[in-house]
TrEMBL record:
Protein name according to UniProt: Anthranilate synthase / indole-3-glycerol phosphate synthase
Protein species of origin: Entomophthora muscae
Amino acid sequence: MEPLVEVNNTAEMTTAIEVGAKVIGVNNRNLHNFKVDMETTSRLAQEVPSGVFLIALSGINSPEDAAIYSGTSVRAVLVGEALMRASDPSSFITALSGRTASYPKTATGTKIKICGLQTVEAAVYAAQSGADFLGIIFAPSKRKVELEKAREIIQAVRLISKPHSQRPPQHPLTWFDSQRALVEVGLTPKIVGVFRDQSAEEITSIATTLGLDYVQLHGSESLEFCRQIPIPCIKVFHVGKEFNQHAQASTPNLHSLTLLDTQAAPNTPGGGLGKAFDWDIAAQLANSSLKPPVILAGGLTPDNVADAISKVHPFAVDVSSGVETDGVKDHSLIQAFIKACKSV
């Protein structure tokens, strides 16, 4: 049995960590004066080392309150009074957890993901320019980022991130509708960690240590592998001249978002090729009966992304090399890419 150690300030957090607590609850209510400060957990979350399961206690009365901790190392929230007051406890729990029927449909407009970010300057510029997702690569790659640099990038982006404000829907949503809506909850842009054929333990450790919003699985991982990851997964499917994985890419309740990228040569990792595939394949999947949220990648540039969006109508577009000059993220190209996306 693992004890839950409750803390309310830095001194108590330091003691809890020093004695080896593995489950720590941060009480947002000061028990000396009974005032509630929802930022107590957010402040102390920065002091928590890898491997600690962090819980926010007190003051969580709505999905908006729970969403405050999206993008941090908080893994759970404890709710008492609000649950007792709820007229429909089941729906209330569903709304808090972000599962089906939890949030309204997203706003219109194709989301934008800038991937392969390696510097604070490029990440902050992409965020300020309107990117919805920022991708950091942790798999073997020329764009791989070490943990400390990734932490620096994420901390800088979080300082300028903007919160969303959402209300529970008046009607139930499908699985993929709820995953679209989840993007609108918490802070934007969302931080995506990109992995390829790494262990669930390694991925989980990095994701929880850095407070990633999404994990992108870019290798041969199965859809069932997503169940082992405690945060939403973007599953990548590699597209060649033909594509026979429509059913897998549309399977609900496993992955959150479907990313289509150009298939690499045999026995080589996919992605980062700067080459496009047949967009008709993406359009067919995006408009299939289950309508999975499709992220279109592969060979996109400021010059062709508007045409791609018009043809495919994807949930999001993903670019890396298309906004680089000599292998380095180019601010002017990032700006041009985002402007082209928003022109459609």
